[in-house]
Write a structure and sequence with these properties.
Layout: H1 2-14, H2 18-32, H3 36-58
Protein name: Lipoprotein
């Protein structure tokens, strides 16, 4: 079961395009630099990723 969850996580991250990865990294860096709007965007992204992961894991 854990192996399938790990593969699902890898599958979700592998779906990101280079542009999406770059945008994510830029927003993360802005949040670390103290930009509160960027931090809110990071929180929303993490919540969405967690929801997608939970949905994927529940299907296994």
């Amino acid at each position: 079961m854990k192996r399938y969850l790990f593969l699902a996580i890898l599958g979700l991250s592998a779906c990101e395009t280079p542009a999406e990865i770059s945008a994510r990294e830029q927003i993360d860096a802005a949040c670390l630099a103290g930009d509160l709007q960027a931090c809110a965007a990071v929180q929303q992204r993490v919540a969405a990723e967690n929801q997608a992961l939970a949905t994927t894991a529940s299907g296994l």
